[in-house]
Prior knowledge:
Blueprint: H1 15-30, H2 33-37, E1 41-42, H3 51-55, H4 60-63, E2 64-65, H5 71-75, H6 79-115, H7 120-133, H8 138-150, H9 154-170, H10 178-194, H11 203-219, H12 224-236, H13 240-253, H14 261-270, H15 274-287, H16 295-307, H17 312-323, H18 332-346, H19 352-366, H20 376-389
Antiparallel strand pairs: 1-2
Amino acid sequence: MEQQVHRNPKTGLDFTALCLLFSRRLLLHLFDARRCSLHLVPQRIPRRGDAAFASGTIHRENYFASTPCDLRKVRALPMKLCNLLVAVACIGTMTSACNRNRQDAVLAANEAEKLRKGDKDGAIAKLEDATRLDPESHAIWYKLATIHEEKEDWAKMAEALQGAITADERTKDDGTWATYHAKRGYALEMQAKKKPGKPKDKAGAYEEAKAPYTKCIELDENYADCYHQLGNVYMWTDDEQQAIEYYTKAIQHDPTALRYYGPLAELYINLGYLKEAETVLKEAKTRGGPGDKLMWGIHVLMGQVLQSRNDTAGVIAELEAAKAINTGEGPEGVLILYSLGAAYANAQPPKTQEATDMLKGFVLRVCKGQKAAQYEVECEGARSTLTNKLNATVQ
């Protein structure tokens, strides 16, 4: 952990230098000349066999000296001893400084949480201060990443999550968090999605998201979301077989998650594997309730499967079930008008009034103004059906 340098305002010395100076002075005090001169310093130890020892007369001057200590030797004491004294004298203060930084980081993070709803930029600034005070706190890095996610700043989110991962790897005692890798993969995936250009031009950007998702699975083989998101990335990089494999594994690891079924079924339909798609969609129907928003896509996809068999009655039933689901202000509520209107018009015999109502409603809602360009193909088809097949006027 990188420590801040604390300097004495009077001497200008940093903390470690002051500790070393203190320890050297302590040594000189313990071994000064006056104290040394009071002690007999053995020059050599008398041994059995010495003549003096045998005769019983040991002359003090032969074996002892009362000369003062050589201060040069004292001042040149081995640095190992000095370092030991430095460590003993300073470790408590250094630990205290580190703990103080951590406490200040927690306080900054708590202040950020209070600012989070009304001032996200202020919260980010507080959390950035906290990461500088305690860069080893992966929880603070992760909190910073979640605020960047709320702002949809995917690059900053990925950067903060890398900080969380690095800190997490240094603190092995509390385990390794697969979520950090999962979230970082998602940030990189969203970066690629927002990148301008055609999907094929973004393949390289999507490649970067593979490593975090793979690491997530390595750390937690039951993390279903990482399998699913990795399937998305393989889809964007035109590897459909790998996408099928990981979409399927996501369902196997969490069959209760309804959102995993639609992408797999849609991929099967696009590849012409209609039986496999139908199997997936039937399983999804056993998992979702009638009012579940995710069931909208399941019903629409099942309608496509039935359309391939010319089962118009079945298509209408699925689309009516989708229309009954409250999807809010999203595009689903508009698109179902077009799909169901076309299905009514193709019924035998055609359900003329129902088809007219649906298609007119679609044209009125999206075929004028800013949304017209987004639904250009559907608007042209709706007008053509109304005019040529249903003999209806279009405003």
